[in-house]
Design brief:
There is one protein chain. The protein is α+β, with helices and mostly antiparallel strands. The protein folds into five domains: 135 residues, Immunoglobulins (Immunoglobulin-like, Sandwich), CATH 2.60.40; 190 residues, Galactose-binding domain-like (Jelly Rolls), CATH 2.60.120; 111 residues, Jelly Rolls (Sandwich), CATH 2.60.120; 336 residues, Glycosyltransferase; 87 residues, Maltose phosphorylase, domain 3 (Sandwich). It is 25% helix and 30% strand. The strands form eleven sheets. Strands 19, 20, 24, 25, 26, 27, 28, 29, 30 and 31 form a ten-stranded mixed beta sheet that branches. A seven-stranded antiparallel beta sheet has the order 32-41-42-43-48-45-46. Strands 13-12-15-10-18-21 form a six-stranded antiparallel beta sheet, with no helix packed on it.
């Protein structure tokens, strides 16, 4: 379809919409928005032929639930305007589904390009206008279908770790043209001197010995009539001999350029010997093993001033090399790309010595450093070192991250990262003869192109500060289709860190596609016999324990619960069962014991990085925590099997869990002291959370844990990475809001306010502040702000917040809170205010959902939208709408 045809289509759509909106006054004031396919917006290359559609209902005129929908899918957008859906037309179908609705039309194939729209009816039979037209493309599903060779730059063209590869292609402007790019390493695409898209550090991570990812670009608008300059700029990234055993010392790419003509794709170019390459001026200095990520060396004498054909034609080019790559899966990328989301200007520059300067960017960010360079002699080298912290003495804390810029000796030069990234607040610049100006330097924050999905604010400034730090930290850690422990020192997708913060992350951000990619790396990382590493993807050994491996079981279920997206539990259920076979192999007398270290996995932990004075390494504690986690995973497998219709298997998991819980109690409960194992917070609350503690002992164990917290830990939090989310969940379930609140309010060690009072802008790796100052250890409390203070709690039986509970737990001294949660169906909002003996609560319930509002136990009367409600009912169930509750409370 040429550009004129598409423009005509858009005009027609607009005109039709105008007639509907302005020509019919009876049209209801609601509309459809946020159309997604496979939870992505207009994806050009999905990895399957049976996608799922989602949409949200917006506006004030909606009445009740959605009762019908109609989806149309066509091979051409003009066909939709003409009401001729040639691929799928549901007709007016009775259903209230609007999230992950499966495609059931004509069979699709690789490279299918489809257009779709939807309209819906409410309970009053009002029909919406058609949604805007969205599109999706099916990617190349079989690597054998993708044409081209893996090519890289020849050593004859200079350094090969970040080369530029080039080909001139004759094309017709206006014809839909897609470029499919499969790189081993990073890439950026340029057409006629312009960068295609805003993505950076592409593709996402994958377990490169098993799988690489294909990214599809629509380059139609970048083309001109006749000869076009196509450039692929490559970077090594994770593709190194030191990580995944790369087949070549430089990055490689296979690419295919397709033009859509008369409804068929025609391959007009591919990677082969006709391409040429050369060095770019960039090179990678790190091994990308833990603590060795280094940075980039950028040579301004080699770096092209621009990428225009005129400039490129003047450069020397050499033929590329074709490299035989070991057999592996190549599949479309199914997560968001990375983008630059925030730019910080340097706030101060301090002289440290001759030619040495300390730059403060104001707060920690994950991303790139950019610096305008003064005119320097050609070949003059400047070193930039990065750190997230200064020592107690105010000295630069060297962390192994650094870049080098070699001056080209001309005006207007600047340094900017491209295929590596850092996590830093401070930059130490060496060998720069003049003081750099603050406006010369920028920090560019990079993370996945996902949206924030929650907001929190309350009357307590300390809680607001802790929440903001947690939410910001997780944004610094989540990019490239996974979540890391820390972005600079290890950059690893640890399962323990993921388990600890999944619920916080998925509450605060819309990251279902991130988990689609991340869990795929875990599935690809599984070894024979069901053995799992502690890190996914798995480029090298990583420490952890069962809580780390079991991320592969817990995260798919949580993704289903938070987003009503069942793809992961469906896809990986059989592999989850394989992992349980591995667990069984090292189960002795009914309890899991230590399994052996391997080349890809070491250590065997219970909790990790608990505060000083807590013996988390005690073997009895490790065994208790590990077996409680197995019990939790068995519960997850029970729920998963039920969802998948495997009732007999579900019952087997339930029986196994019941037997395990009895054995855990018999083995670890110390009746003389009323404690489990060591009596630590985690050793006490985890058995309560997973159902180990008999009902007759529950209150005793609970009271003992609270007493031990006060007596032994002076009311402080006393858990580490594993314990934080478990203690948080226990506190929410048991409505121990003041117990938890007073722990968060502690300003001395250990605690979140201790971090903030000592200059933290992101959460630390250690409670004491050692090593990393942007880390994923303690972010599991994020859910407490929403589930306890805000009062919004999931109903796992109706996932995606299709039904949820509203039951604020109000800490003593907090007088108001405002919370929003963007669910797959729309925005949930809870705004409560406590004054004297009256609680006012405003609730917004989005279309397609219901809420159960819990009446406070101490309420003596209740009004909903000025109408009386009996407090004896205890709960009120409401459908979509805007509600004002007024609760009169018993006087204290």
């Amino acid at each position: 379809m040429n550009s004129m045809k598409r423009l005509l289509c858009l005009v027609c759509c607009f005109c039709c919409l105008s007639v509907i909106v302005y020509g019919n006054k009876k049209t209801p004031s609601f509309y459809l928005a946020e159309l997604k396919c496979e939870n992505l917006v207009d994806p050009l290359g999905i990895d399957n032929v049976a996608p799922h559609f989602s949409w949200k209902l917006k506006g004030d005129g909606w009445k009740g639930r959605q009762t019908y929908y109609e989806i149309q899918v066509a091979s051409d957008s003009i066909l939709l305007v003409q009401d001729k859906a040639d691929l799928w037309n549901t007709g007016k179908l009775k259903s209230d589904a609007s999230v992950m609705v499966p495609y059931q039309g004509k069979t699709l194939t690789s490279r299918s390009l489809c257009y779709w729209r939807v309209r819906v009816w409410d309970s009053k039979k009002q029909v919406s206008s058609w949604s805007p037209v969205a599109r999706f493309g099916v990617g190349i599903l079989d690597k054998l279908q993708m044409q081209g060779d893996y090519i890289g730059s020849s050593v004859k063209g200079g350094k090969i770790c970040a080369p530029i590869l080039r080909k001139k292609v004759r094309l017709t402007r206006g014809e839909t043209t897609f470029l499919h790019v499969n790189t081993l390493g990073y890439h950026e695409i340029y057409v006629n001197g312009r960068k295609v898209g805003e993505d950076v550090l592409t593709p996402a991570v994958s377990h490169l010995t098993k799988r690489s990812l294909i990214v599809t670009y629509d380059i139609t608008s970048y083309l001109k009539e006749g000869e076009n300059d196509l450039l692929i700029w490559l970077g090594q990234g994770w593709y190194k001999t030191t990580t995944f055993g790369a087949a070549y010392e430089g990055p490689l790419v296979k690419a295919e350029l397709d033009v859509l003509k008369n409804g068929r794709w025609e391959v007009v170019a591919k990677t082969d010997r006709s391409w040429s390459g050369r060095e770019s001026g960039y090179s990678d200095t790190g091994t990308w093993r833990a603590l060795q990520f280094g940075g980039e060396r950028v040579d301004g004498r080699i770096l092209p001033r621009d990428l225009s054909s005129e400039t490129l034609d003047k450069m020397k080019w050499t033929p590329v090399v074709i490299v035989k790559v070991p057999d592996h899966i190549a599949s479309p990328q199914m997560c968001e790309v990375n983008k630059i989301h925030q730019i910080l200007q340097a706030v101060s520059v301090k002289k440290l010595g001759e030619g040495m300067w300390l730059v403060d960017m104001g707060k920690i960010q994950t991303g790139w450093f950019e610096m305008q360079m003064p005119i320097l002699p050609s070949g003059h080298e400047i070193t930039m070192e990065y750190s997230d912290n200064l020592t107690k003495d105010g000295e630069f804390d060297k962390q192994g991250e650094s870049d080098i810029y070699v001056s080209g000796g001309t005006k207007g030069e600047y340094f900017r990262n491209k295929f590596n990234h850092h996590a830093f607040r401070y930059v130490r610049i060496s060998n720069l003869p003049q003081k750099p100006k603050t406006e010369w330097m920028k920090s560019l924050q990079i993370h996945g192109d996902y949206k924030q999905a929650a907001t929190f604010e309350c009357s307590d400034a300390d809680l607001n500060a802790i929440h903001s730090m947690i939410q910001y930290t997780m944004k610094c850690l989540t990019f490239s289709g996974y979540m890391v422990d820390c972005p600079h020192l290890e950059r690893a997708g640890y399962g323990g860190d993921g388990n600890s913060s999944t619920m916080s992350l998925q509450t605060m951000y819309d990251v279902a596609p991130t988990f689609e990619n991340w869990i795929q790396t875990w599935g690809d990382s599984m070894r024979e016999g069901g053995s799992l590493p502690h890190v996914g993807p798995n480029p090298g050994v990583g420490g952890g324990g069962p809580y780390w491996c079991g991320f592969f079981v817990r995260a798919p279920w949580r993704t289903y619960v938070n987003y009503n997206d069942s793809r992961l539990i469906e896809k990986y259920y059989s592999q989850m069962k394989e992992w349980f076979k591995y667990v069984d192999k090292y189960t002795v007398d009914g309890l899991l014991k230590r399994w052996p270290d391997t080349k890809y996995r070491d250590w065997y932990l219970g909790d990790w990085l608990a505060p000083m004075g807590v013996d988390a390494g005690n073997q009895a504690s490790v065994d208790l925590v590990s077996n409680c986690f197995v019990s939790e995973c068995l519960g997850t497998m029970y729920n998963t099997a039920l969802k998948l219709g495997k009732k007999e298997e579900a019952e087997e998991f339930a029986v196994r869990r019941e037997e395990l819980n009895k054995l855990i109690h018999q083995t670890f409960y110390r009746a003389d002291e009323g404690i489990y194992s060591t009596g630590s917070q985690l050793d006490m609350c985890y058995p309560m959370l997973v159902g180990v503690v008999p009902d007759s002992l529950y209150n005793k164990v609970k009271d003992n844990m609270i007493a031990i917290t006060e007596e032994n830990h002076k009311g402080h939090i006393a858990v580490g990475l594993v314990g934080v989310p478990i203690l948080t969940e226990w506190a929410v379930q048991n409505k121990k809001v003041d117990f938890f609140y007073q722990m968060l309010k502690k300003r001395d060690y250990p605690g979140y306010l201790y971090m903030i009072d000592h200059g933290a802008t992101a959460t630390w790796e250690y409670w004491s502040g050692e090593r990393s100052r942007v880390h994923n250890c303690y972010n599991g409390i994020g859910t407490w702000f929403y589930q306890a203070v805000g009062g919004i709690r999931l109903d796992e039986t109706e996932p995606g917040y299709r039904h949820f509970y509203v039951d604020p737990q109000i800490p003593n001294g907090v007088t108001w809170s405002k919370v929003t949660k963007e669910s797959p169906y729309g925005t949930i909002a809870v705004n409560w205010n406590l004054k004297d003996d009256q609680l006012n609560l405003r609730l917004i319930v989005p279309v397609g959902t219901t809420a159960t509002v819990c009446i406070p136990d101490n309420a003596v009367s209740c009004k909903m939208n000025k109408k009386k409600v009996s407090v004896k009912k205890q709960t009120v169930v409401v459908e979509a709408g805007d509600y004002n509750f007024v609760f009169a409370l018993k006087k204290l």
